[in-house]
Amino acid sequence: MAYPSLFNEALIKADMEAKTKEEALQSLASVLISNGYVRESFTKAVLDREGIFPTGLSTEDIGVAIPHADKEHVIKPGIAVAVLKSPIKFNVMENPREETDVRIIFMLALTDSNLQIGALKNIIAIIQDKELLSKLINTKDIKEVMRLLQSGFTSIVS
Amino acid sequence: MFNKARKDVPNGEKAAYNAGKVKIIIACGTSVATSAIVETLLREKLKDNKVRGFEIYRKRIYDLPMEIKQINPDIVMTTSPVDPAIVKDVVYYPAMCFLTGGADRDRIISEIIQYIKERTEKKE
Fold first, then answer.
1. At A8, phi and psi to the nearest 5?
2. Can you give the pLDDT at residue A120?
3. Does some domain include residue A3?
4. pLDDT in tens, B23-64
5. How far apart are CA B85 and CA B113, in angstroms?
6. What is the ipTM of this complex?
7. What are phi and psi of B109, to 5 degrees?
8. Number of other residues whose CB lies within 10 A of the CB of residue B109
9. Which end of chain A is more exposed for a tag (fewer CB within 10 A), N or C?
């Protein structure tokens, strides 16, 4: 079954510098806003949600975060990706009092469509692929990041 | 750590009330993202194991107390910690491991498969 990729070069930031997670989240959210994926209310919604239900995942060596917000802030679905120059602390989903060093942020702008199921499966595959994650943090090139993310598609058993 | 699937009467009654279908609520902060991931994976595993007779509901953690009252689920899974008091009458699993993978996830999936099979194979 073919499904549209939610990744887009316009939504990728490689080698991103940010001092705090708020800065990183704001930066990524504005990419989604300026490309017409989400409303302006999305930024505050993501920050608020991160405060209550943190999205840091400590997947062994390379920490990942999957911040997102309610579908009411989303115009069309997409995923913004930031590969951070240096790790930033996020609180952990499993235990909000715990922190983890995050290197890659996947900011999810999702509605409720079943078409996104395939893309979501892809995200899981990427998050659990240690080799892919380490390739991602070792590249500063947006096209290369995009290529790596897309390569995750082929490793899914549908 | 995890609630064992209860074999005593209350859940048996609940399953019967639910017309033989096991009801599962999957909840996260927004009901759109992490719960969708968990639902997708769970459905896949249940399908692989030829398990039927279940209904999955995706809800927000914020609405959980009300939804549990309304839906009367057998199993509840969340991708963020919840107050144990909210889920004391259901079989509860923390589902963050569905996102990160690992042995816990496989163990939970096995338990859920077992639970559904036990309750739906009692056909007349």
1. -160, 135
2. 75
3. no
4. 999 998 776 778 888 998 899 999 999 999 999 999 989 999
5. 25
6. 0.71
7. -60, -45
8. 20
9. N
The CATH number that applies at residue B100 is 3.40.50.2300
Residues 35-74 of A with CB under 8 A from B: 49, 52-55, 57-59, 66, 68-71
Burial zone of B72 (CB within 10 Å; 0-12 exposed, 13-18 middle, 19+ buried): middle
| Helix (H) / strand (E) containing A100 | strand A99-109
Q: Rounded distance, CA A11 to CA A107, Å? A: 10
Name the domain count of chain A: 1
Structural domain of residue A43, as residue ranges? Answer: 9-153
In a domain, A117, yes or no: yes
Name the 3-class secondary structure at B57: strand
Q: Please report residues of A whose CB lies closer than 8 A to that of B79.
A: 53, 93
Q: How far off is chain A from B16, nearest CA to CA, in Å?
A: 30
What pLDDT score was predicted for residue B16? 45
Instruction: Inspect the interface and report whether the beta carbons of B41 and A124 lie closer than 8 Å.
Output: yes
